[in-house]
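FAQ
Q: What does a multi-component entry look like?
A: The components come first, one per line:
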Amino acid sequence: MKILVFNCGSSSLKYQLIDMENENVIAKGLCERIGIDGSKLTHQPEGKDKFVLEQPMPNHTVAISLVMEALQDADHGVITNTDEISAIGHRVLHGGMVYSDSVVVNDDVKRVIRECFDLGPLHNPANLMGIEACEEAMPGKPNVAVWDTAFGMAMPEKAYMYAIPHEYFEKYSIRRYGFHGTSHMFVSGEAIKFGGLDPENAKVIVCHLGNGASVSASIGGKCVDTSMGLTPLEGLIMGTRSGDVDPAVVQFIANKENMDVNEVLNVLNKKSGVLGMTNGISSDFRDIENAAKEGNHLAEVALDAFVYRVAKYVGAYTAAMNGVDAIAFTAGVGENDKATRKKVCEYLGYLGVKIDDAANDVRGKRTVISAPDSKVKVMLIPTNEELAIARETLRLVK
Ligand code: AMP
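Then the predicted structure of the entire assembly, as C-alpha cells:
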C-alpha cells in the first residue's frame, strides 16, 4: 500500500510517496515559488537521478498536477498510474478545538479548515488548496487531514487556558493549542518504544529544537503541556521567533517605534529569536555557533539563553508530571548538535540526569545518550513527520 504525503505551505509544497509495507520513501520532492515567478519542482525518485522542472505554477492545483506527472513519468516516475496510491495524507496546521485526532476529509472537515483561517493564516489556506487540488487530480481517493494541533488537544484546562477574560475563549477560542504536534506525537511514541518504557504511564519530555522550537510533556503518549500557544510564537527562543515575552513589550515597542500591533508581532515572529538577539547575524544555529566560537558576545548570550530556556521548560514540565522517565531531543539542532544537548542536560543534574559523552557524540541516529546510571533516560530520536502522517493516513483508511 502506497501513501502520498503532502505538506503545503503558502508558496511551497513538499511531498513523499511512502511504501507502507516497509515504510520506505519511494520518491520525494518539493515545489517552490508557487504563485511567484521562477516556480520550480525538484523530484527525487529513490535509486534514480533527480529531476528538476522549471515551469510556471500559478497555484497549488498546477503544482500538484506536475507532481502527479513526475510520479508517473516513464523516466523518473515510480508508479505507472495513480491507482497505486491508496490515500493521501495532508499536514494541516490548525483544527481549532474541533479535531483532536486525524480525520478523513469531507465537506465538514474542509469547513473547519476554512473556519480556522484566522488561527493559521499562512498555512490553513494552503493546506485546503492542497486537499482540493488532490481531490481534483485523484477523484474518489481518500484524503486524510493530520493536524499539527491535534496532539496538544489532550492538554488539561489548567494547561491550555490563558488567564485573560473568559469571554475571549468563549467568543474566539483563544487558548493554548501547541504546534509541531505530529513531531511530538511521533517522537514521544518512538521514545517509549526505543527506551522500553511503559506505554501507558511513561512520562516523556520531547525537545523539538529546530528553526521552530517547542517542548512537550506527555504521559503515556498523551500531551499534558506544550510550549507553543495560540500561535507558534509562545515558548522557546527560536531562529526568528522571540518565544515568551512580557506582552507589555509589544505596547512599549509600538509606542517607541511608532508601529502598530501587527508590525510589532511581525518583529517578534520574523526578526527576533537568535537572529534578533545577535543583531542579525543569522537565524541558523550553525552560524550563531560559529560566531560564538569566534568570541562574538551576542552570539554567546543567544546560545546561552536558548539552552537556559529549554532547561527551564524541562524543569517546569517535570514538575507538571511529578517526574520524568525520558527526555528526547529531536529536529535540526536536537538531532545534530551534541553541545546543545549536553548543555541542556547540565542544568538537569538535580534530576539525576547524566550524559554519556561518547554516546552523545552522534548525529541524526536513534541513540540513548544518557549514562547507564542516569535516573532519566535521555535519547536522540530523529523526527519524521511525513512518516507519522503516512501512518495516521494508513490507520484511517485501512
Ligand atoms: P529544522 O527546523 O528542524 O530543519 O532545523 C534547522 C536548524 O537546525 C537550523 O538552525 C540549523 O542550523 C540547525 N542545525 C542543523 N545542523 C546543525 C548542527 N550540526 N549544529 C547546530 N545546529 C544545526
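Q: Is there any commentary attached?
A: Sometimes. For this entry: Residues 210-212, 239, 284-286, 289, 331-333, 336-337 surround adenosine monophosphate (CB under 6 Å).
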